[in-house]
Specification:
Helix content of chain B: 25-40%
Number of strands of chain A: 6
Strand order of the largest sheet of chain B: 2-1-3-4
Distance between the termini of chain B: 24 Å
Number of helices of chain B: 2
Largest sheet of chain A: 6 strands, mixed
Radius of gyration of chain A: 15 Å
Largest interface: A-B, 39 and 38 residues
Number of helices of chain A: 3
Distance between the termini of chain A: 23 Å
Shape of chain B: globular
Number of strands of chain B: 4
Helix content of chain A: 10-25%
Oligomer: heterodimer
Order of helices and strands of chain B: EHEEHE
Radius of gyration of chain B: 12 Å
Strand content of chain B: 15-25%
Structural class of chain A: alpha+beta
Strand content of chain A: 35-45%
Shape of chain A: globular
Chain lengths: 133, 83
């Protein structure tokens, strides 16, 4: 989603995800510290959709990510209609959302991992609600 | 009946595949929603339905196709979540 944003909204036509090993401008790169099979605290931006969904500004999530937004391209997460909705305790972007869209949220963690039948994850419930609205 | 399309190339027995489908099922049940979930491999994408999940498990088989779906969801206002 960040690569699509970089290419089609920000005009970085050769934007690539480093995992694919393609030539171009890598906007998603290997994290300096792997977050494979990790539990991380997420700080959510006030007034974001994610804050509204969680009703809290700090949540704990599970992740298996090794890639993240390239630090030198962090600005693309703040422009072109995209906003940062969460960061981790190192300040790295962990979630973005698109203002003015019905529902457009991307996370660099896996909220599905903590969903339970008796306690569905609020992000997934908000998404299903939007899908059926 | 709404249709949620899930793009995911992981094997069906991968933990991340199962947790993604389970999380959708949990929320659909909690809302008592009438929703059908269809999983597409990125090299076999069909009609998108009312909403899209960009599932975990990159690299994708067809990243260009996945990007086209993201662009369509952005431009057409389809609800989208990517994890």
């Amino acid at each position: 989603m960040l690569v699509e944003h970089a290419r089609n909204v920000m005009g970085i036509g050769d934007a690539v995800h480093a995992e694919y090993g393609l030539s171009g401008t890598p906007v998603v790169t290997l994290l300096s510290c792997s977050l494979a099979e990790s539990q991380i605290d997420i700080t959510i931006s006030p007034n974001s959709r994610l804050a509204e969904i969680h009703g809290a500004l700090v949540v704990t999530e599970q992740t298996n990510c090794n890639y993240g937004l390239e630090p030198s391209f962090a600005h693309i997460a703040f422009t072109g209609g995209l906003t940062v909705s969460a960061v981790d305790n190192t300040g790295e972007v962990r979630a973005v959302e698109r203002a003015g869209h019905r529902f457009f949220v991307a996370t660099l963690y896996q909220p599905q991992r903590t969903s339970r039948r008796d306690a569905p994850h609020p992000l997934w419930t908000a998404f299903v609600r939007a899908a059926t609205a | 009946m709404s249709v949620i399309s899930v793009l995911m190339d992981l094997p069906v027995d991968a933990p991340a595949y199962r947790s993604t489908i389970n999380a959708l099922d949990h929320s659909i049940a909690a809302l008592d929603a009438r929703v059908s979930v269809i999983v597409y491999r990125t090299n076999e994408i069909g009609a998108l339905g009312e909403a899209v999940v960009i599932g975990p498990g990159s690299p994708y088989r067809d990243p260009a196709a996945a990007e086209s779906v993201i662009e369509a969801a952005r431009a057409r206002g389809l609800p989208l979540v990517g994890t």
